[in-house]
Amino acid sequence: MTTLPPIFTSLARRSMLLAFALLACAPTFAQVSLTTVVELAQKNSASVQLAQADLQRATASLAESKDVFYPSLTFGSGLPAFPEVGFTGALPTIWDATLRSLVFSMPQLEYIKAAHKGLEAAQMSLKNADGKVALDASLAYIELDTVDREISAAHQQQTYAARLVEIEQQRADAGVDPYSALLQAKLTAAQIRLAQLHLETRAATLSEQLATLTGLPVGSITPDHASIPAIPQLTGDLPTPVTDDVTAAELLAQSKQRVAKGDQDQVWFPQFAFGAIYNRNTTLLNNVNKYYATGYLPANNFSSGFSITLPLFNVGVRAAARVSAAEALRATVEAQAAQQQNNIRIANLTHTIRELDAEADVASLKQQIADQQLKTVLTQMELGNGSASGPNAQPQLSPEAEQQARIDERQKYQDSLETSLDLAKARLDLLHALGHMQDWLNELHTR
């Protein structure tokens, strides 16, 4: 047995490692479930990240509104740059400490309530952003799955069309059929090719959309049809729902109303605060002792007390209260408008789904009829038409009839897929409008 030199063994090992690395870095085209796509889209979404930032800001705003009741302690220090001469009016302090806190304030209590409502609104906005991203990702995923199946059917159509052109070419050359029949077959093949190009362009656009949503490479997502759960057949006849976006708008309006009330309370209610100050004085670089009757400046100085602020007349505060009241009114009207728009959307989707449901039934029946006609043609091609010879006997089917029947069956299949897709998209949109998107997502996550 021949033993390779160490250098060749090392090169072989490095080549194998390089090959494994290239395989690991190569894009994979395995099937990706709808659950994975939705989760990646929610993590990668800018709107979700913005909603998370708003939630963090609302959480900090609530903490800030409460923290004014906690004592705040500050330190300061300093020495004069040059020796002081005379009485400057300020105590020569080495360092000082100041303690302050708000004891009671009616406006601040309203601000805290407003911050609570703002936090709840931010939470609902985040939930709504998650739902919208899940809806967009689901719609794109389901459509790509349908288009892929349509492309597969279009490939079969193209094979049948090519066979039809070949048959018509032979019949035209033999003088059995006119040249126009050959042109018609070529037109059918060209139309099928054009439709296939449209489907491929549509699939490429959907792949780029899913790549943008999820952050995965373009073309790396192959839909898994089994991962798509059934969409509930809801109707708009249910009680008027309150969706996440409408709830967020209502909570935001309530928050602004609390802010407006707090600003209004500042015009009438006093505020109580507590404060304490400690100073450490020094006689270095100054002659301040000569100005005190005792002959020396106390080193330690401490004072504390409560302060009461009584609002008597403040034009700025009154103007700010009017501004916040107008903002609260606007937010309330916007919340009502959001509910009305959602109700209109539900009504439109309900009527649209009824029409699409009927269209899907028609398309399905047409596909079934085309399938049965294809079976009949294939049987007649194999066994004959079964009619006796005579003046009323049906002519034997020609080979091009089989290809036409196959092409028609595949076309009816694609039409059925397309109407089913439109119905699924409308139902999913209605599911979101009715506020049941989260229930469907929970079912999705169990897969």
Strand percentage: 5-15%
CATH second-level architecture: Up-down Bundle
The strand line-up of the biggest sheet is: 2-3-5-6
Q: Structural class of the helices, strands and pairings?
A: alpha+beta
Unreliable residue stretches: 1-9, 11-28
Number of H/I helices:
9
Largest sheet: 4 strands, antiparallel
Shape: elongated
Count of beta strands: 6
- Give the helix level as a range of percent: 55-70%
Count of domains: 1
Along the chain, the helix and strand elements come as HEHHEEHHEHEEHHH
Q: What is the C-alpha radius of gyration, as a whole number of Å? A: 39 Å
The CATH superfamily appears as Outer membrane efflux proteins (OEP)
Q: Kindly report how far apart the N and C termini lie.
A: 55 Å
* CATH topology tier name: Outer membrane efflux proteins (OEP)
Average pLDDT value? Answer: 86
The CATH C-level class name: Mainly Alpha
Structural notes for this entry:
The protein is α+β, with helices and mostly antiparallel strands and 447 residues long. It has helices at residues 6-25, 34-44, 46-67, 106-173, 179-214, 244-265, 315-383, 399-433, 437-445; strands at 31-32, 72-77, 93-105, 222-223, 271-281, 300-309. The longest helix is centred in the C-terminal third of the chain and has 69 residues, at 315-383. The protein is elongated. The relative contact order is 0.13. Residues 1-9 and 11-28 have low confidence and may be disordered.
